[in-house]
Please model this.
Amino acid sequence: MTTPTRRLAHLISASSPSDLPPHVVHEAKRSILNWLGAALGGCRDESVHLALSALSEFTGPPHATVIGRATRVDALNAALVNGISSNILDFDDCHARVVVHPAASIACALLALSQTRPVRGIDFLHALVLGVEVECRLLDPRTAQYKFAWSPTTTVAGMGAAAACARALRLTEQQIAWALGIAATQASGLRETGGSMSKALNAGHSAHCGLSAALLAARGFTGSESALEGVNGFIVAFGDPGDMEALVDAWGSNWHIELNTYKAFPCGIVTHPAIDACLELHRQGIRPAEIASVQLTVHPVAVRLTGRENPAAPLEAKLSVAHCAAAALTRGKVTVREFDPDAIADPQVSRLRRATRAAINEAYAIDEAQVEVTLADGRTIRKHVDHPVGSLERPLSDGQLEEKLRALSEGVLTDAQVNALIAAVWSLDRAENADVLADACQALR
Amino acid sequence: MTTPTRRLAHLISASSPSDLPPHVVHEAKRSILNWLGAALGGCRDESVHLALSALSEFTGPPHATVIGRATRVDALNAALVNGISSNILDFDDCHARVVVHPAASIACALLALSQTRPVRGIDFLHALVLGVEVECRLLDPRTAQYKFAWSPTTTVAGMGAAAACARALRLTEQQIAWALGIAATQASGLRETGGSMSKALNAGHSAHCGLSAALLAARGFTGSESALEGVNGFIVAFGDPGDMEALVDAWGSNWHIELNTYKAFPCGIVTHPAIDACLELHRQGIRPAEIASVQLTVHPVAVRLTGRENPAAPLEAKLSVAHCAAAALTRGKVTVREFDPDAIADPQVSRLRRATRAAINEAYAIDEAQVEVTLADGRTIRKHVDHPVGSLERPLSDGQLEEKLRALSEGVLTDAQVNALIAAVWSLDRAENADVLADACQALR
Model:
């Protein structure tokens, strides 16, 4: 009897970089560029500093890069700490169909692994594509319906990272099944973490779990071979099972990474259409001082996830659509700085945030929003957004992704380092050893 | 507004060793004795060897004991590896009311911690009592009903370990709440792992997560302060919420560790009443060769968890009530050796296993069983057990716990070492530094 877990392991084991069309390899590079930008922007955050200081006394041989820092730690701790950096700004990638930010945990695990074992550049890209594929298939609504309390990105990230590392380690089908099984029983991640540092820790923890699952399985440490679909397995525990065929069907005809998108704003993805509309109103010349009130109309999940009306701290402001809208209308841009404490306390932003209401429209798509501002003179002006910038319909270009990385690397890497890093990403498929990537994002101090 | 998570953190922070009556301190020592026995018996298992070899290249400064081995590793990895040793034999403790094996993850985390920070013996015991309290209150049926697919011991073990380590580190109420929050979002553990090494890894992973949660919180790394009861928190994610008051009510009037029991047989606890009945039949002189068939009557959960009819490997045999019964009837004892491959392959055991059927009686208590053997001459003999040896009603004595540890330490520690270890446990409340415990279970080779 071949279980779905085992069948998935077989597909991973039998997959080859040559199965990937050039545009898929290119999208994997774009995912890496975006991930590194987010991580370089986040790497000097207090959360990363605290994690490093807590873990430093336990770290093993310093083989692995801490992104954007001069420090090295052991590979497992590097995967963990880099995962925090990758997520702390909320500047992730985002799959356009399945609600998941797929790259961070997988890429952090692979980056650390590539500094302990030789991994060719094309194998790094291939492994990333496979990891994203596993995550998205697990979250496919055909596979299961999961409870809302679970942070979907986090719950599947360890299995994505395990699959990717298992492939990069060239494990056998049996070992890959074990790696998936070990990662499945360590799957975790609560949405309740939103607003605390432990939300970003989720990404690092998953990277750590996925990498260690693959390393354990490589030695012969056994996991359940029905860990995904079994009656007491991942899917039953986390949700209501659907059709397990969705885990494996039509494998290779398309790759989920083709549907990956990259955030234009460093905050919850569901706030993006409202931000986009507010920025357009600002571009049209509407000044914050003339605005009396703001009425947002959004998808229900946008209110559920980002309904915070009075964010007190940066990590909360990133999950407050009212703050995002107020900042966009006031400042005409939404960068990392719009979530700084002084931006949260800015009197104009505060006033507009209090004057903002968010209503639900059940008929809206999740990336749809409308903003109606009422001016002091009584006029109302409306802006509707179908798809925000950064969505699949209005994607960031390669150049915009480079610019995003450049802006986020400011004060972390030198210009020469950033240029070298960008070049390393675009040429990764031709690199003999993928550790060039880790070397290129190590800071000088 | 004080959240239940925060109230629990307050109770932990305000608790003092002087709150514990002597019999509670004594039960904590009994729990430690049992845990160390199980870990010393398990520490030479292949799973422990594989985990150590996979993790050795990443381990930090060797400050912490690997139980029953000469090796030392960093404290986080020690917590992980010792957790595997503690669980791999299925020789745990077992709470008599809540389905949980509480001590292993908590004690492994504390043991490792005590080798990095000074922890007084009485504080180690106090922290263990608090950790068990947190686990059992989370699993209290009044708090929530959880999905069966979750391994209850595992899901709460990280939070128990985090609470214990947080108290041993003398964290503030705020930090304890963060530690609980960090551990909650890393809570995991699937029953599907049964039969694979990853079941034992669950215990180690939880110890690792709980210890690191406390260490992170100690530095100021933040977790959600509503991680347990929030709408997207632990209890909602893992089950159906009940009354959150159960997390904190009647605190200190009794302690859950008072209801801890210790297994007499190294296998799933739900098999124990049937084993006990079979051993009694063997004592009555019934020889395996005369038995034609065996009819077990057990609680439904016993079949659900241990219904395996044809176990192929030791870890599966421990979850096969048919194997347990057959081994007891054949050999008149159920020790670690009755789960060795040669015991599984033993023709007489095999024959009786195939001749054993397990029926469910919905009216049975979980620790109740009946065995009816039909002999070759047509006679039937019946034995009913209300509570097996090792249960709260028929507990192992202090002397029996010492004997259990002695038997399990054979070939691992010298007699002198075992004597010193037992003495260290009984005098732990008077020890200036709890690291005597870790030193005492380090092997010479």
Notes: Residues 198-219 of chain A form the longest helix (22 residues). Chain A touches chain B through 64 residues (CB under 8 Å). Residues 170 and 245 of chain A are 25 Å apart (CA to CA). The longest strand of chain A covers residues 291-298.
